[in-house]
Amino acid sequence: MGCAVEGEGDTVTARVLSDRPGEIIIESIEGDGGRLSLVASKNCVGIAAIETLKLLGQPSCGIALTLHKGLPLGSGMGSSAASAAAGAWAVNALFGEPLSKDALIVAGLAAEASVSGYHADNIAPALMGGFILIRSCSPLDIQRLPFPGDLWFVLVNPKFEAPTAQMRAVLPKEVPMSASIHNCAMGGSLVAGILQGDAALLGRALDSDLIVEPVRGPLIPGFADVKAAAKAAGAFGCTVSGAGPTCVAVVDDPQLGEAVAEAMSEAFVKYGKLEVNSARVAKLDQAGARLV
Amino acid sequence: MGCAVEGEGDTVTARVLSDRPGEIIIESIEGDGGRLSLVASKNCVGIAAIETLKLLGQPSCGIALTLHKGLPLGSGMGSSAASAAAGAWAVNALFGEPLSKDALIVAGLAAEASVSGYHADNIAPALMGGFILIRSCSPLDIQRLPFPGDLWFVLVNPKFEAPTAQMRAVLPKEVPMSASIHNCAMGGSLVAGILQGDAALLGRALDSDLIVEPVRGPLIPGFADVKAAAKAAGAFGCTVSGAGPTCVAVVDDPQLGEAVAEAMSEAFVKYGKLEVNSARVAKLDQAGARLV
């Protein structure tokens, strides 16, 4: 599962190319430091647009895209899914929104498969907003889980190039049965916390991962101290966001969130010897991809 | 997690022994075929009573118990937890119910530890009724999950002595990461199905276990056919109940449940070459342990 948060995000513009039927071109990308390819078939936003065009039944025009990255690459905040969601929604919007957001997930999945594997954890919430539980990717079986009440996330992104290959390689291929049972209980508790509007339970569930956090956390300088600082400052729980290095904590009050953000940032500086790119308190987003 | 169902259950009577302070004795056990020990410290009902007495602060009397087994032993329906819950509640009731049901879980846990390990999956719902999600056993962190609406389980118990040692030995010590992720999604979906009153989702989640069912199912003659028959007859999902050999299916209508029970029973006879002890359609129980 995954969720969307308000604030930073990617923006895509789409323009009809009447003389280039079926073609997707990327005209420009801003905010990526020149790291992303302008070749549509090699870029999340391009792939999502290509797949959306297929779903639309191959209209007799092409589409030119521009992408403005609002989310940093490789931050663990689902940057690629943000581009894919924006690309799919922009193309769909150009034709009057004939497809629903959940129908567009398959387009986003194709884009995600090219960068981080065939999973909907990021793309589904990026499109639909809120918490999305993915029971199965094929066939696609997803649930939008409403959180009754307000919820805030504290996202602290340190200036640290997370070693993506190592972050993936460190995941075990096999896990102890006891850890699997434990994490399954946490998965259930996460859902129970969300649906019952119990931010404290949600935090306890998020805070107690025995499989991924124990191997990825140590690769982020200062992580254990950041986690401890978040909880000492009043967060319900703290863990690695995605593959890191961003750390995320859960709070039910935005003012408390500011204090937690400060405590986490200080811990990154003091114990991780890392500068902090951004520290923000973001509300759970309910809208997902949208026309701006 | 686990849940309680209406119908069959164990019954305990408790009587004050004013001349034997602090002592628990078991006077008689019916319905166990002579298999259970009358020594209190070697029997679930006795251990639960002893632990409950400790929680009550060691009153200056002893207690005599009788146990009537309504649930068959080794059936995969939580027979030992039923005895433990009844024992704990009977002792507590004798003193005017000073302890709450969730306070008695620790007494039941001690009893369960002696037969099937330190887990609250059976004892918590046996005491409290409904669905109980156990995030953690120590410290105890449980959630009662209300199912909005009605829900029925089809429980078909074949005449088959499940090889308990083998049923346990067959569980892997390590599981593939992919299976762990999958089962975690099922755990979340199970909770989502319950809290949202979505019996179909609950069934899909229950039906798709990649860790336990694939190794335990084949030890129950005819299991694959029973599962297929349940679903062909309209059940939302079917799996092994506990360690088996009882199989459980989920339905949202009791009449449909009868048809599913018949289809499952026929499959046990035809493909498993097993007679059927009992086949019943049981409603989700909301009360748990109670005074009768």
UniProtKB/TrEMBL annotation, chains A, B:
Signal peptide: none annotated. Residues 50-130 form the GHMP kinase N-terminal domain. Residues 191-269 form the GHMP kinase C-terminal domain. Keywords: Amino-acid biosynthesis, ATP-binding, Kinase, Nucleotide-binding, Threonine biosynthesis, Transferase. GO terms for biological process: threonine biosynthetic process. Its EC number is 2.7.1.39. This is Homoserine kinase.
